[in-house]
Amino acid sequence: MVIFGTAGHIDHGKTALIYALTDIDADRLPEEKERGMTIDLGFAWLEKPSGEKIGIIDVPGHENFIRNMIIGMTSVDAFILVVDAKEGWKPQTEEHFQIIRLLNIDYGIIVITKTDLVSSDRVKEVKQEIEEKIYGIPFLKISIFSFSTKESDRLYQLREHLEKLSSAIPEKKDIGKPRLFIDRVFDIKGSGTVVTGTLVNGNLQQNQYAYLFPLNRKVRLRQLQSYGSPVEKALIGSRVAINISGVKKEELHRGDLIYSKPGYQYGKSIDVRLVLPAQKNPYLLKSGSEVDFISHTRILRGRVIFGKKELKSGEQSYGQIRFLEPLSLMLGDYFIIRLPGLNETVGGGRILDPKASRHSFNKPLWNEWLNSRKDLDISQVILTELEKYQFIRIDELLVNSPYSVEEIKRTLEDLADKNMLFLLKDLAIDSQFWIRQIRQAINSIQQMHQDYLFKESFPIIQLKNIFSHLPDDLFDALIDYLAQTNKIRLESGEISSSDHSIRLSAQQETLTKRILEYIEKDPEHLPTKKGLQEEFSDNHELIDYLIKNSEIIVLEEQIMITPNVYCKMKDKIVDYLKKNRSITIAQVRDLLNISRKYIVPLLTKMDEDRLTVRMENTRILKE
């Protein structure tokens, strides 16, 4: 489906041309009929032999209604620029043509109207003037037609050319993200609220649910109509009227957005590439100026910021436009800006970040970042998006972009295969950011090992406290990745470096020998853990390490004993039991010459080791 938009100076015959082509009077308002000029947008269509419709938006030419003209042109595929044969190229013709260029509308024709009212020489003169105006502009070839409502053969040729041109325009890409910016709202008795607009980026179905912005409400699209006929499916690129249930006419306005899926994003700042067209009378646009921003049917007052103090006509720059109200647009959308109070188009451009954070352009970083996105190459856009946010959930990545979900996922996988980003679970992660997290995690664990020389592992929570800047799912993904790539050991909620092992130094080996000798020097008077720590006050960690590695056994009451001493005592008791079948605490005292303080913990340990069994006040060997 293709839509043409008219452009041209007031009274140059735009509406009459549309009527001649379509038999539809695009002037619909009583005031337009009374004043004989187009004030608001008008709509018509003609039908190709194939049955396909070509939509036509008629826009006002008067300078007082230029904002309505821009609204009409922001969603068209091609233009019909009309020039009166008598008056020639006028100021509004020039401004309309600049708007066409700023909106990057590459297809169109120029029609010289009212040729029956002037001489053939005048028509040639006007044609030459037009050719000089468009010379050297990198459009596709623009045809220039002469036309009069009295010349039926010219009308036929013009219709034929429009049909051929519509077939040459590339088919619109259905990315599964249908949007419709409302340009009219009205009530129909018995039906309720109806809105109209041009459908872009996808198709809509009758009775489907959709969402409204900025109303932030879910609604049902009860009925659809396109080019005067009810349809079950409204096609991308077509003019559509929608009967909406669950919302009143007073709640909707021109510029509101209908979109099909939840999660569409919005903000109060956008980053842009700004172009100021050259003018005969150059003007300056100062950074910080208030501007009227127009995109699709949305008009907002904003403030434009860029790196220089000012831009002059003929220059371009990356910049940011900040608003008091939220707006929801798409990466790549075109826009026009005008100065409030001055009925003049200042410039236009393209959105490079529809949900920008406020920043300064004093540093080259942002200019470089935006420059890498200017061609809207999907790979570069994804990489710069991750550079900005560091990690993004895949289902939230580039929602407001001209790429389908499938295209985004394919590109993510391709970039991941090239190690240009990381994909973990449902996250896309900037490669440099992810490498930094890996290094920080490994370094943090190694530092823990240095700080606690005799601990083999640490609770995960200890590392998580260091990575408090990461959401839980990303931290979990980091731990999983480190474990799967054998960079760490993960066991029972404890982590350690994969290559870590405790190796005692010669000094620590000597100290270990002294600790064990201290325990063994008087088996009849074994130390407690507290006593051992007091004796070796600077070596608590080494003592804990020796306990963990079973070089020291901790009996009940925190009594410390070495495996060597324990085995000797245990073996004497076992030998006694083999001969005498049972043993009492008093008999153990006589056998080992130790007090009850040590006997009970010793026998308890033997019970735990399944060597003995307690039978009332005696112990017997376990069968």
Structure description:
The chain has 4 domains: 2-168, 3-Layer(aba) Sandwich (Rossmann fold), CATH 3.40.50.300; 179-259, Translation factors (Elongation Factor Tu (Ef-tu), domain 3), CATH 2.40.30; 375-503, no CATH class; 508-621, Arc Repressor Mutant, subunit A, CATH 1.10.10. Strands 2-3-1-4-5-6 form a 6-stranded mixed β-sheet, with helices on both faces. The protein is built from 18 helices and 34 strands. The protein is elongated, with a radius of gyration of 41 Å. The model is unreliable at 27-40 and 61-65 (pLDDT under 50). Helix content is 34%, strand content 29%. Strand 2 (42-47) and strand 3 form a beta hairpin. The chain is α+β, with helices and mostly antiparallel strands and 623 residues long.
Brief summary of the model shown:
Helices cover 34% and strands 29% of the residues.
Question: With helices defined by DSSP (H or I, 4 residues minimum), what is the helix count?
Answer: 18
CATH architecture of the largest domain, by name, is 3-Layer(aba) Sandwich
Strand content: 25-35%
Largest beta sheet: strand ordering? 2-3-1-4-5-6
Helix content: 25-40%
Top-tier CATH class of the largest domain: Alpha Beta
Head-to-tail CA distance between termini: 92 Å
Major beta sheet summary: 6 strands, mixed
Mean pLDDT score: 88
Q: How many structural domains does the protein architecture include? A: 4
CATH level-3 fold name of the largest domain:
Rossmann fold
